[in-house]
Amino acid sequence: MVTSVRLIVGIIGSVVCVLLYAVPVLTFKRVIKEASVGEFSCLPYILALFSALTWCWYGFPVVSNGWENLSLFGTCAIGVLFEFSFIIIYIWFAPKEKKKFVVLMVSMILAILCIIVSFSSFMLHTQHMRKLFVGSVGIVTSMSMYSAPLVAVKQVMKTKSVEFMPLYLSLFSLLTSLMWTLYGVLGRDPYLTAPNSVGCLTGIVQLVVYCIYCRCKEPPKTHDDIELARDLEVATSREDTNACKP
């Protein structure tokens, strides 16, 4: 009974998770249309790629017991394709400085993944130890992935605009975390339950921030607008100080 319920939850979780992976398609359609990445950060997509790659390896029979985590493996494999596509588009339209940063970060996570795969395959000789090691790494990567949207939350609070944090992205993120938390609980898998519980919390935070700032009617402020306002404030302060001098 529990196995059947877990399978159903896994299928629902996979569908919701694929939708979450596909959500940035709208963002990157805009990037392609404007031929610019604007204020968008590539960090969430890099961390999502690292997390998807790690959990792909976790769901593979070398680490898991047979195909017990087939839903997880299949979903994350699709996620890897999505994230690689988004990152390639970002690199194509990003300015030179951002391109260097993204290429460096992607190279770094691929190198780390190779170390993880090699170490768990050849240095750890029991499935329990492999699951413990890769699962622990997966917790770290998932935590980093779920903390990445907090960058968008900071941007929303800074610009007072929800432009950089779409509602459907936050909503699907919360739903995905909820489904994989339940999937982990049913399978008594702490490596899936722990990070996705944190994902639930960050998803709730995103929705709360969205509800607060979606009512702001003023146009979104860009980074340049904020810097200009800050410079004007400093200049005005200096003029007032000079005016007060005898």
UniProtKB/TrEMBL annotation:
Q: How does it sit in the membrane?
A: Multi-pass membrane protein
Query: What Pfam families does the entry give?
Result: MtN3_slv
Give Gene Ontology CC terms.
plasma membrane
Places the protein is found:
Cell membrane
Q: Tell me which Gene3D superfamilies the record gives.
A: 1.20.1280.290
Biological function:
Mediates both low-affinity uptake and efflux of sugar across the membrane.
* Protein family per UniProt: Belongs to the SWEET sugar transporter family.
Record GO terms (molecular function):
sugar transmembrane transporter activity
Relate the assembly described in the record. Forms homooligomers and/or heterooligomers.
Q: What is its main location?
A: membrane
Q: Which UniProt keywords apply?
A: Cell membrane, Membrane, Repeat, Sugar transport, Transmembrane, Transmembrane helix, Transport
What protein does this entry describe?
A: Bidirectional sugar transporter SWEET
Q: Could you list the residue ranges that cross the membrane?
A: 6-28, 40-60, 72-94, 101-120, 132-153, 165-186, 192-213
Q: Does Repeat appear among the keywords?
A: yes
Organism, scientific name: Digitaria exilis
